[in-house]
């Protein structure tokens, strides 16, 4: 077996998701979200989060993030985020484009997470009313982070409190929402709106979905501007029942936690066993389904020559991502090949 830990986007769609799509593929249904399935999806998500929410399916996580933040920030606004946040490092300036020019303001923080005290200090020193400075409009955190670390509930609450005090909107990039939720073993409400989150990019594709993500709106004042941004960006899907079916199946009967729990467990084992090998350094705690390693360059090259799939980062770091459809045999093969590459 040649291990493939390149991404969780390489995974299959879960059979329950495919079954749900087939089940709604019966007869005609109203277009653009006026169908009964989309109505039901909103009701189910409101039950899932313990609060009335409005859900907008979108095609990608980048679309979810950029259009969510376009509804939160003015063209001259500032959006605070961690310096390694996906919106800052990996979305090609999408947030800046869809906001009409809002500036991302990257901030440091340990374990690749935005530190609440750093955010609070930045907000205290924001030059409000100075027209040659971006004006504070929003803060965004990635849960789980780009390095697989997970914000604790107290940190989310502290960021939410800082956002409320400053009068800005709190956005969560939840591309790996289920993985973080599984780690924290809390309710969806406790990880989001009860801690001050106003709007959520809700990931599905990485964890068993076929081709849909969603924006979940907790703050009702954001619904109207978001609906216009979605229309202008071509993200108002005509056959929305098929995305609604995927999202409902994903949250029904705890499927998202079942799948995330498996990929998290595989990552924990992979990180634990690789960390015992001489020459391997774990770059970040393994708290979701991401494992970051620093290896000698010769070992990285040997793994690549053996056909192992992974993502490279600067400084001799590689990223390994486990999937819900992975297995222990793939972990065993990766550990054996790494041991051989280090010999």
How is the secondary structure organized here?
Blueprint: H1 15-24, H2 36-49, E1 54-58, H3 61-70, E2 77-82, H4 86-89, H5 94-99, E3 103-107, H6 116-124, E4 135-142, H7 153-166, E5 169-174, H8 177-184, H9 188-191, E6 199-202, E7 213-217, H10 223-232, H11 240-251, H12 255-274, E8 281-282, E9 290-294, H13 297-305, E10 311-313, E11 317-321, H14 328-342
Parallel strand pairs: 2-3, 2-4, 4-5, 5-6
Antiparallel strand pairs: 1-7, 6-7, 8-9, 9-11, 10-11
Helix pairs in contact: 1-11, 2-11, 6-7, 8-12, 12-14, 13-14
Write up this protein.
- The structure is a single chain.
- With 343 residues, the protein is an alpha/beta fold.
- It has two domains: 241 residues, 3-Layer(aba) Sandwich (Aspartate Aminotransferase, domain 2); 87 residues, Aspartate Aminotransferase, domain 1 (Alpha-Beta Complex), CATH 3.90.1150.
- The chain is built from 14 helices and eleven strands.
- The strands form two sheets. It has a seven-stranded mixed beta sheet with strand order 1-7-6-5-4-2-3, sandwiched between helices. It has a four-stranded antiparallel beta sheet with strand order 8-9-11-10.
- The relative contact order is 0.17.
The helix fraction, in percent, is: 40-55%
Q: Could you give the order of strands across the largest sheet?
A: 1-7-6-5-4-2-3
User: How many separate domains make up the residues?
Assistant: 2
**Uncertain segments of ≥5 residues (pLDDT<50)?**
none
- Principal-axes geometry comes out as globular
Assign the CATH architecture of the largest domain. Answer: 3-Layer(aba) Sandwich
Class from helix and strand fractions: alpha/beta
Q: How many H/I helices? A: 14
Q: Could you name the CATH topology of the largest domain?
A: Aspartate Aminotransferase, domain 2
Summed over residues and divided by their number, the pLDDT gives a mean of 97
């Amino acid at each position: 077996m040649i291990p493939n830990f390149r991404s969780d986007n390489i995974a299959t769609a879960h059979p329950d998701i495919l079954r749900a799509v087939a089940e709604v593929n019966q007869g005609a249904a109203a277009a653009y979200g006026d169908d009964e399935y989309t109505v039901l999806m909103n009701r189910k998500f409101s039950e899932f989060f313990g609060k009335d929410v409005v859900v907008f399916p979108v095609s990608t996580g980048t679309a979810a993030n950029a259009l969510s933040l376009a509804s939160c920030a003015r063209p001259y606004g500032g959006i605070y985020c961690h310096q390694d946040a996906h919106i800052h490092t990996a979305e090609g300036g999408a947030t800046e484009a869809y906001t009409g020019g809002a500036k991302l303001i990257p901030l440091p923080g340990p374990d690749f997470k935005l530190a609440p005290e750093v955010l609070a200090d930045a907000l205290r020193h924001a030059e409000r009313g100075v027209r040659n400075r971006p004006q504070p409009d929003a803060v965004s955190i990635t849960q789980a982070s780009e390095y697989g670390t997970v914000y604790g509930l107290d940190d989310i609450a502290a960021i939410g409190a800082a956002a409320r005090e400053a009068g800005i909107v709190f956005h969560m990039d939840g591309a790996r929402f289920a993985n973080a939720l599984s780690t924290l073993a809390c309710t969806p409400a406790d990880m989001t709106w009860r801690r001050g989150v106003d709007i959520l990019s809700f990931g599905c594709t990485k964890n068993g979905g076929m081709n849909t993500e969603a924006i979940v709106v907790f703050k009702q004042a954001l619904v109207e501007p978001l609906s216009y941004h979605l229309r202008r960006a071509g993200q108002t899907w005509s056959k929305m029942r098929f995305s609604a079916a995927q999202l409902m199946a994903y949250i029904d009967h705890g499927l998202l936690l079942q799948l995330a729990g498996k990929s998290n467990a595989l990552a924990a084992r992979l990180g634990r066993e690789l960390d015992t090998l001489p020459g391997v350094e774990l770059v970040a705690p393994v708290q979701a389904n991401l494992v970051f390693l620093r290896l000698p360059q010769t070992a990285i090259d040997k793994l690549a020559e053996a056909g192992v799939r992974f993502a490279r980062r600067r400084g001799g770091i590689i990223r390994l991502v486990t999937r819900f459809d992975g297995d222990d045999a793939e972990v065993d093969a990766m550990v054996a090949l790494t041991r051989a590459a280090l010999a």
